[in-house]
Every structure is written in C-alpha cells, then in structure tokens.
Amino acid sequence: MTTEVKVPTLGESITEATLGQWLKKPGEAVAVDEPIASLETDKVAVEVPSPVAGVIGALVVKEGDTVEVGALLATIEEGGAAAAPAAAASAPAAPAPAAAAPAAEAQPLSPSAKRAAIETRVDVSTVAGTGKDGRVTKEDILSATKAPAAAAPASTGGARKEERVKMTRLRQTVARRLKEAQNTAAMLTTFNDVDMSAVIEARAKYKDLFEKKHGVRLGFMGFFVKAAVQALRDIPAVNGSIEGDEIVYHDYVDVSVAVSAPNGLVVPVIRDAQDLSVAGIEKTIGDFGKRAKDGTLKMEEMKGGTFTISNGGVFGSLMSTPIINPPQSAVLGLHRIEERPVVVNGQVVVRPMMYLALSYDHRLIDGREAVTFLVALKNAIEDPTRLLIDL
Description:
Order of helices and strands: EEEEEEEEHHHHHEHHEEEEEEHEEEEHH
Largest sheet: 7 strands, mixed
Mean pLDDT: 82
Number of domains: 3
Radius of gyration: 25 Å
Shape: globular
CATH class of the largest domain: Alpha Beta
CATH topology of the largest domain: Chloramphenicol Acetyltransferase
Distance between the termini: 67 Å
Strand content: 25-35%
CATH architecture of the largest domain: 2-Layer Sandwich
C-alpha cells in the first residue's frame, strides 16, 4: 500500500516552505515518525516525520524547491523492505574495496550543517556527529573548523574561487524584516553602562541552591528580564507599538529573547513575563534554548512579543546598535562584561562593567523616555533589592 507524505500545516498565516534537505533516499527503510525531510519556513526549520513504517518510494520535489502546505512531498510503500539489505543477504560476504562509498554518504547532516560544510569547506567524512541518531550538526562543523589542521597544503597561487549558496527562507525573511524596520521606524539608539558587581555576587552566592531547588542554572537573563519588566511598567511607551495612526499600550509584557539555533538566531517569546519569578524566567529561557537547538520550537512560540532583549555579549560583543523587531518599538542590547576602571566615591576602582544599548522608534518614544528606561534598568541591576521591593 502506498502512502503519500504531504507538507504539514506549518502554523497560522504560513502557507509555504522550502525543502531544505531530504533525510532519506528512495529505497531506504523508514520507521513511523522518523524524519524524512527538513522544511525551512520563515521562522524555523521543521522536520517532516514519516506517517508509516515502510520504504521510501518517489521523492516528488527537489531540495531548494518551494512547496505549499498540503503539497505532495514523497511516497512510502508500507511494510516494504529496503532493497539494499535484501541484496546483501543473498550475496556471500566479501572484503569491501578500499574505494567504497564515501563516508560522507553515511553521515546524516542537518540542513544547517550541510550549508556550514559548504561554506567552511570541511570534509564531512572526518566529522563525528553529536546530534540525534548521530547526525552531524552545524556546531560539529564549526568545531571542526577550530581544530588544528594537519599538513595543510601550501597555496599554489591558482585561480581564486567563489561559491554561491542560495539564502535560506529564514535568512531571506530576516533580511527583509530588518530592512523594513529601518525603512519604517525613526530608529535611534541610546547607551548606558551598568556595574554588574551586585548581580555577579548574588549569582555566585545562590547559584548552587537555585539550581538544586529549581532544576535550572541561575544566569544573568533572569535579572535583566525582571528589571526590564519593572522599567517597562514605569515607561509604558517602550512596551507599546504603532498601528496606523494609533498607539497601542499593553498592560502585559511579552519579552522576545534571541537564542541560538542551527539555522541562526530565533526569537521565542516569554509570555506574561510580568507574572514570572526569576526562576520561571530562567526555566522558560532554558527550555527555549534546548528546543531551539533541537529544532522543536513551535511557530506560535515566536509570534507576538512587545519588547525584545538581545544578548550579543555571549558572542563577545562590546557594543552594538540592535535593530527593532516590528511592530515592537524598542530592543535592549546586552553586551560582554569586562573589568574597567571607574570612579566610585572619588576613588578609581576596577569593576565588571557592561554596556547597555536601547534602540527605539523615535516616532513613539522620546529621548527622555529612552534614557529614563535605561537608568531604571541600570539602578535595578546595580541594586537587585529594588526588584524585590518594586522600586
């Protein structure tokens, strides 16, 4: 019996996707719910599971093709057996020739790993996969590029080469939205810095007890989200948005947080952050990070959001001017912590300092409001007790 595999429903308002990669070939056996293909949408990569156990039949579309929801992707012959194992069983065992099938063929790749391998020229056959079922991930490829090269051939001075790699649907969407933000908003960035001593001390003092009680590590984002929520209540315009000729003020705070995924950064939303404790915030962010790496974030988890926090500091950024995420009106950029000399009570001392950047839509948010927001955030981080007594 032949079963058709079609493009699944991808979420509200998403009608099409790009076939990023086939994970199975015609004639290969497949189990129920085993991924057979990866689809790239405007937001995330989605794996298409097999609805039945059997053998892959025809692959109807090619990698890179755009497909609509409900379109036919492939066929599966239920209950069949893969042709290759059957043939092998009837033949006597013999030593494999030295030039057998390339190892890369046996290395299952995620779509992002495939692109990373092309861009970095890494030989996939030399990379050990750490992903599910031994799949090679983007992180595996990037780690391989950092390993010391053995006997690298000297340059021969030959012709320079170029490679053209089609932008993923996610990257195209990011590019379009960022440019739209620049074209639409009257964007401006204001800066401040914050002494991280108090938060670092609190984290060092309570991190073990915190993890033991809540089952999640105590990071800095919990403090910043909590402090941002408090500052947003004081300066509601920073949490607002413009719709036509109206300003929309929200009595809730849905914080978009940028987390790393194999295909790049994704921005899931912490719903009703004003109702969450630091532990609740850290648990939510930890769950987002894990599922972003696994590619299991849902579309609805990345919709909405009234304010964004982006932490470039984890990548070593000292300072940046982040771009707002429409229809939001502001984004807070966090950066790396570094020890710098500062003056405290007339004395020069060394403190762990971080630059803060608030990019905002000047059509809605005045400079006074932007600065007041950053000062409120700075005060809360430098004296976390304020978060407990709502100051």
